[in-house]
Amino acid sequence: MTTAPHTEPATGFHALNLMPPLLEALDRAGYKDPSPIQAALIPVAMTGRDVLGQAQTGTGKTAAYLLPFMNRWRGGDPMKPQGIVMAPTRELAVQVAEEADKLSPSRHFRTVPVYGGQRFGRQMELMRLGCTLIVGTPGRVLDHLSRGTISLEKVRFAVLDEADRMLDIGFRPQIEKIMRRLPTKRQTLLMSATMSPQILKLAQRYMIDPEHLSMTPEVMTVDKIEQKYITVDEEKKFDLLVKVLERDKPRQCIIFVERKRTADKLYKNLKPHFPKVSVTHGDLPQPKRDKVMADFRAGKIICLIATDVMSRGIDVSGISHIINFDLPNDLESYVHRIGRTGRMGKDGCATSFVTPEQGEQLTGIEHLINRLIDEDRIEGMEAFTPRVKEPENKDKKMNPVFGRSKRKYTNRL
Predict the structure, then answer these.
(1) Is residue 204 in some structural domain?
(2) What is the pTM of this model?
(3) How many Å apart are CA 198 and CA 46, to the nearest integer?
(4) What are the tens digits of pLDDT across the range 95-129?
């Protein structure tokens, strides 16, 4: 009697029943094991079911929604796209398109990014060469639809990536116009870090019995990111920034500011101190923004000054530090900012500059992430505004959010 040869159970991406060309592409890209969102979302999406995927940035969600579509793709009319991904920013659209190119199961699977700031003629030329998947910002996709240069009649797969951000920046009317023009027989995936009532309303209107997969931890930030704040007067911020960069010597860092004018001024002042610094924001011409991001990914730029609108389109694995030169007005933007470091489980450091007037803002961030942020200090950079001394063992209470004794924040800064 012969014994059947023993076979080891499939592991990693091989356990997800992906076709061989995709497994080969994953091997070439150096992807070994699926992240939690990939392991949860891919099997469900491969059944053709609509999915609400809730996950933070840096968790591998792009591959999570691309792989099921690529696995089910079997050719078709190369002149009519079968899939569409909508993203909030040009940079994120480019990033998703690059990921699709990297994971493509065939040279006949072609991805075309469409976004503002690039000539229509160039995008039309690429689509005439064949287009399987469109990745674009809602505004530019709608422009193509109004010109008749994009056909959605064969689309069977639609993704709203970072849907919360798209709604935040006012893309809802464009999204709804595009969704209404898609075939009813399609699979829809909605990816979002948060699930607001507006997101759920969008899902109810354009999705069919979606499965909700939440990979968002109770603590809304990556545990491995070291988070610190430094109290500083507004006029000392630049000097503090120079000292922090000299002390920490980041491998690569992003310096976040609130305004484009601040970004330009900071770049001009920082350039003499750190030659490998650059700046990106929404007012820069698209070719310039593309060049800056290419240089940043290549490591030619060490410090990148950016506004919040850029935070969702920066996916660079080498970022070791985030510096919040300005605290964000929208608290959840803090989570998205620091998520640029600590990518895919790596560690990172996030330092926030806090003026004496911003104590409540800092408290709000701590409540959001359910975690106390440690104070850091650099000699000579202390805020001139005197702190109000708190009485010993007074004004303390058990805070239900943090679950431990904590002073009230009234006089924190």
Answers:
(1) yes
(2) 0.66
(3) 27
(4) 899 999 999 999 999 999 999 878 888 898 888 88
